[in-house]
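During the practical work, I worked with a single protein chain and the tokens that describe its fold, as given directly below.
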Amino acid sequence: LRAAEKHVAPYRQQLPVIPVPADAGGGYTHEQHKRNATLILQSGILYQFTGERAYADLCRDLLLAYAELYPTLGEHPQKKEQTPGRLFWQSLNEAVWLVTAIQGYDAIYESIAENERLAIEQGLLRPLADFLSQGQPQTFDKIHNHGTWAVAAVGMTGFVLEDPGYVEMALYGLKRDGSAGFMRQLDELFSPDGYYSEGPYYQRYALMPFVLFAQAIERNEPQRRIFEYRDGILPKAIDTTIQLSYNGLFFPINDAIKDKGLDTQELVYGVAIAFGLSDDERLLSIAQMQGRVALTGDGFRLARAIDAGRAKLYPFRSMQLADGPDGSWGALGIMRSGNEPGHPAVVFKATAQGMGHGHFDRLSWLFYDNGREIISDYGAARFLNVESKYGGHYLPENTSWAKQTVAHNTLVVDEGSHFGGNWKLGQENSTVLLHFETGERADVAMARIDTAYEGVRIERALVLLKDSPFHNPVVLDVLRVRSDGSHQYDLPLHFQGHITNVSHALEAETNRLDPLGSENGYQHLWKRASANTAAGDLFQLTFLNDNRFYTNSVLATAPMEMLFTETGANDPDFNLRREQALIQRVRDAGSQVFVSVLEPHGEYNGSREFTTASASSVAGIERAAHEGGELLRIIHRNGADSTVALSFDADPAETQSLSLGGETYEWTGFFMLFD
């Protein structure tokens, strides 16, 4: 409350500038109109909290000024061709502005004269709601986050103006038949587990209009029981959004900007609303992490509960989140070794495409440890609201690099991206889940895709071994590819850290650099070094991240070329971050298996000047296989081992059997861990 009062104070005597729109995202006029919307909301809410007339007057005067400006505006001079706005370069920002401003108007509605209401509604609110609905049907009826913001803006305006026509359009689409609108979006954009198909970054962004409009529906039409709709899909979505994070930051899959996390404004509101619905004391620890609460009644109740010492630890857990309206489009697997911040976690991306914001990265993975992203995803190539960087748009490199398969930790066939780089084709083809299991000793996720490349089947299993001979949890990665044809297979591993050791001799490029290829993302990779391995070799790469070492141990199941790469080629505007990868390459192969183990180990302490366990404890990886199964033994330097059995074509009733090192192992099902 004090922060809001401090922010509003300079404008109680003089209105802020209300400029004629001129700039794209991040430019002065763009940001000023955003600030003014926040000022409308804050001044209205401060009037509700304090009863001071000056706050209501400020809110009213701002709205009246916009009611004079808005009728004079045509399309924005920097308009985005598909969805141009008037106040902003795209209508999405216009919808966000109205969602914000209508709450301020609602807060002062009864305090202002009827002629002032008429001026605000006829000059601003109705023209803006009409523009966002009938004026842009291609956005309003779209099942997409842009559509969610538009229907929330129009529906909330309808409640304030007591106009049921706006509300019905918002709920059921322009035809009012349920073919579009808020209810259809609730049905199609979330899976039964509350996972939003575009991924965590856009789940966070779309959450705000979903929960704000739902709360307005609950207050005005409680008989709809909107928060119970689809088995409580909205409260479930809030929980899922929180789960899609590590150490406060969202998993950066699909088009994601990597500094977004649990402290975003959307989730501040989401947590407050969820607590208001459930009184779940575990949400209080998330609010403590956020460091602020929404300036609402729910936010007040949440803050009071924190002050009373009621906060409990939020249960971050291993879980599988189905994708798609009926949960049949694949899933995101999250495997955690504990609930405390900094514990290792694996993310297995076996979801659907994620619509236009999706990347071509089926069966990709990320690894977190020690509070950091270790095996990484590039996320989006974009500088949001930095006008000098392509006006805040997604950069051209978002298409030429960030979305391409080689930018991710998954298989590339013949240097082409999944589905030929066609997202609409990718959207039509789902990933097949094979198995997901959690336990005290290990978590495992397994999936398959047959359609990423014609005539190629890719299967992958990731196992987080929490109980093994190794000091820290380790990750076993097994990727199998089958094809009747002959192909080049590349398996990238994008890692964060400084290389400290490589087991094989490197041929390094010291005098000149060349791009690794000419298209599909390869044109942006410098080839820095390479090494050759024979079948049966154990290739080990060790790197240091912060104060911990990591070794990726690769069992070469065929002759392989190990390529060390770095982004930056064909990047004349310096749009790409400099990041590195190790690519396992196999040429002229039909079927192939890639096996590796990632091990965190040791400590580097710069301040106290000591280093411990900087070398890997993985002494070897042994393998036996048959058509449908894999048996992998990971051997510690002290002679102890963990043996993992995997079946990719499991018949629950059939016993699988494989021999390794003179011992025969039998198991049923998809996964078994032997000592």
Remarks:
- The radius of gyration is 27 Å.
- The first helix runs from residue 2 to 8.
